[in-house]
Design goal:
alpha+beta, Jelly Rolls, 7-stranded antiparallel β-sheet, 2 domains
Amino acid sequence: MIKKFITIFATCAATITLSAQNFNYNFDATDTDAWQNGNLLNSGAAILAQNPWVITTVDSNLYASNAAGFSRAVFFTSNDDTFDVGETITLELSYKFADASLINTGTTMFRFGFKDTYTNGTAAIGMDINATPADIRIKGIGESNVTVGANATQDGLFHTYTTAITKTAVANTFNLSISFDNVEAASYTVVNSTLYGATRLFPVLDTQSGGSKGGALVDSFSSTVVPESSAFAATFGILALACVVARRKPLA
């Protein structure tokens, strides 16, 4: 019975295509790329990165690092991945300023988000990480600043930055939210016809000015898709049908 169910489940599952723009990079030996100190990020199997992006050892730990301004790394997902109406993609970044003492004025230190082509370039929607000598500020790209952490630039710790992007049923419209250390700071709507018409989006890391103000250290970067609710319903419906068929159909 169990063997029969597994066979039916596998057959049904093969007919379902849910978006799968999922990845998780720790930028160390645990990744598929098995990173080592000195590796160029561009040597990864699914990353198009400008050469200043490199794997660096700091305090015996490996990180993706960059000490050049406006340097980008674009992440590739498999050819059958899509971004459909109702779906939400969440990007989560663990990042810190390599040397916060060099931040002498308010500036955009880092940016991450999405673009519609697998070519080097900055994100069109997502989050900017700004900093002054006193605090960290985050904002949606093109939105007003939101202060989210007094003196956080001076604590020497990694912080978690998250942006969640939902493709709505309204033409050319996305809902976005941005969070700092798992606390939502802002939510807003973005209109972007180019990205809306794209069937795929590519996650991007961009050093902005921060690369030349002490550099950037990235501990981890992930992308997670939550499919539209009807896709879940269809999946569970097919699984339920598989159970019924497995129970009723006599074994050969």
